[in-house]
Amino acid sequence: MIHPVIFRTTLRERVAAPGRWVGVLLLLIWPAILMAFMHTEQERTAIGSAFAFFETFVVWVAGAGLIGEDISSGTILLVLARPVRRSAYVFSKWLALTALAATMMVLQAVITGVVAWKLGAPADLAFLVRGAAISAVGAAGSAAVLVVFSVVAGNAKEMGGAMLTYAALSLLRVLAMTRGWSRVAALAESASGLLMPSLKIHAAFAGTGVNWGALGAFAFVTCASLTLAVVILNRRQLSYAAA
């Protein structure tokens, strides 16, 4: 299901965009520095919880135009002209973005550890490894959601679409809470959770044990997003006129 050429090509495309990496590096550095200034594990855990969805923004910036750029430029037709299934194309793109975002999460953990060490308040290695691992897995869910937006929207519009949708749902949730519309607030919260499945993966490991319900919900959202992306791409009529 994974096409190695598409996987490698996608990684090269993502890495070769210098403008994108300015935003990614800024996203990586300042939370790491902020966490490094926290001297206790309780403070660092609180900061980590505040940035529980952070890998989602890294995925959105690094993955902007993941599939949409190929559709709008007509490149996807050249790729699919070869014996490549559309499902393999989608999964390869998703895995490449997941691998890239996971690497960024590990890099952020390394930066956090180095800065904390330089400031004389070294972070616990187990804390850093656990946080990086959970964020890396969370990136897979965020990447799956972005793939759906990328198939539907052209060029890099999926990132803006995801952000605007999440902002609208957040505003709706706040409005519903102020008006006492508990059902609407719960519905808006559930819908916004679909855009940030990383929240689910962090909730799964928030306690002393594993929350299997939250872990199952995260896995369901990830698989459902990838399936939906494949279905939409299979039904979409592709042509050079899209460019």
Protein model, in words:
The longest helix has about 35 residues, at about 85-120. The protein has helices at about 5-15, 20-35, 40-50, 55-60, 70-75, 75-80, 85-120, 125-150, 155-180, 180-195, 200-205, 210-235. Helix content is about 80%, strand content about 0%. The protein has one domain. It starts with a helix and ends in an 8-residue tail after the last helix. The protein is mostly helical.
End-to-end separation: 27 Å
- The SSE order reads HHHHHHHHHHHH
Radius of gyration: 19 Å
Strand content: under 5%
Average pLDDT? 80
What is the number of helices? 12
Number of domains: 1
Q: Strand tally, please? A: 0
Describe the sheet with the most strands.
Answer: none
Report the helical percentage: over 70%
The best one-word shape is: globular
* Structural class estimated from helices and strands: mainly alpha
The poorly predicted ranges are: none
Compact summary:
With 243 residues, this protein is mostly helical.
